[in-house]
Design a protein that fits this description.
Elements lengths: L2 H22 L8 E4 L4 E9 L5 E13 L8 E9 L13 E7 L2 E7 L2 H19 L2 H25 L5 H21 L3 H27 L17 H34 L5 H40 L4 H42 L1
Antiparallel strand pairs: 1-3, 1-5, 2-3, 3-4, 5-6
Helix pairs in contact: 1-2, 2-3, 3-4, 4-5, 4-6, 5-6, 5-8, 6-7, 6-8, 7-8
């Protein structure tokens, strides 16, 4: 067995053990944790049907839970839980499920399922697959993810502290830091890394700047910023920050692929001409652009599907549904698509530095 597969297997087994510990332990939880010890009795309260023939049921569960931590540890409480059969905003519970509990005037109330073990299991699977496929380089990728997550946390804190006044400046600087840190850890500090860095930033900021100019020239007509969910500050700036980070994710992937491929091509083909390099870059871009743009659209469709169904089931028109559930997401996808197309040009042009270096 190859070393990377041994590492992957070890990580998977350790992760499973940690997942089991997280599931059963309550020592690290600041909230009361309970376990449903009886089979929930489920009864119908009433049936509902609105004017658009949307049907639902309001149901009530009754079950006992045993508290596993805190000052009420070991005590058993009888709990009632009302939920809608559609489970859009309410939750149905099952026997032996572990739940987060709150106490109000001595009565227990179930808040939500205990889901931290699910995150541990998913993280275990991802990391073990990364090591099985990438080997040692997975270590740097994980370090990059960790550092980017920490930086993103403080970027959001800074955004909150400034109350959204300097959102574009904050997230523009964050994009530069994310790009530099990710590329340095993945490729090391080299000329290839710098070329990828420049191509990525050109693709991100030219695409975003071009889109911003178009929005200004059209007076942002048809932009339904009020459709931004859970916006606690100016929704317009939140949308622009989302768009900027979205472009970065797509462009960095493409720029890395094109620059790395052209770098290897220039090293293995001594007589490569500038015209051949440019044609190779264009061919690579044509192969990459389609799948990347389709991935963006599919991700957006998957995210917007539940809300679009709710709008349509409430007898809203397709135009209204598009404006308030789909339009902003489609605009973000278009901005990212512009960045993907432009990055083919920037990555190819930046890669010509490899030819000059070889000739020198």
């Amino acid at each position: 067995m190859q070393k990377k597969y041994r590492w992957s297997l070890v990580i998977f087994l350790v992760g499973i053990i940690i997942t089991g510990i997280v599931y059963f332990t309550t020592a690290f939880s600041s909230q009361p944790i309970g376990e449903i010890i009886t089979k929930p009795k489920d009864s119908l309260i009433n049936k509902t049907e609105d004017s658009y023939q949307n049907k639902d049921e309001l149901r009530q569960q009754t079950f006992k839970i045993r508290i596993l931590n805190g000052k009420n540890k070991g005590k058993v409480f009888l709990v009632e839980n009302e939920y809608a059969k559609s489970q859009v905003i309410t939750q149905k519970y099952y026997s032996h499920q572990r739940v987060i509990v709150a106490f109000l005037k001595g009565k227990a109330k179930v808040l939500s399922p205990k889901r931290d073990w699910v995150f541990c299991l998913a993280f275990t699977v991802v990391v073990s697959l990364m090591f099985a496929i990438m080997g040692k380089s997975a270590k740097m990728l994980l370090l990059s993810l960790l550092l980017n997550a920490i930086i993103f946390y403080y970027v959001v804190k800074l955004d909150i502290a400034t109350n959204g006044v300097k959102v574009l400046w904050i997230y523009s600087l964050a994009s530069i830091i994310f790009t530099f840190l990710s590329l340095v850890l993945a490729q090391g500090f080299s000329k290839k890394m710098l070329v990828t860095f420049v191509a990525t930033l050109l693709g991100v900021f030219v695409a975003f700047g071009l889109s911003y100019v178009i929005m200004k020239l059209t007076n942002e007509s048809g932009m339904k910023y009020e459709a931004v969910e859970y916006a606690t500050q100016d929704p317009r700036t939140i949308f622009l920050a989302q768009s900027l980070l979205g472009v970065l994710g797509a462009v960095m992937d493409e720029a890395t692929d094109i620059v790395s491929s052209l770098y290897n091509l220039s090293r293995h083909k001594p007589n490569l001409t500038l015209k051949e390099l440019v044609l190779s870059g264009r061919t690579l871009g044509q192969e990459i652009m389609g799948p990347l743009i389709n991935v963006l659209v599919l991700i957006f469709m998957a995210e917007a599907l539940p809300m679009a169904i709710l709008y349509l089931r409430d007898n809203n028109t397709l135009k209204y549904t598009f404006e308030f559930a789909l339009s902003l997401g489609i605009i973000q996808s278009l901005i990212s698509a512009i960045g993907i197309v432009l990055t083919v040009v920037f990555a190819t042009l930046c890669s010509t530095v490899f030819l000059r270096e070889k000739r020198a």
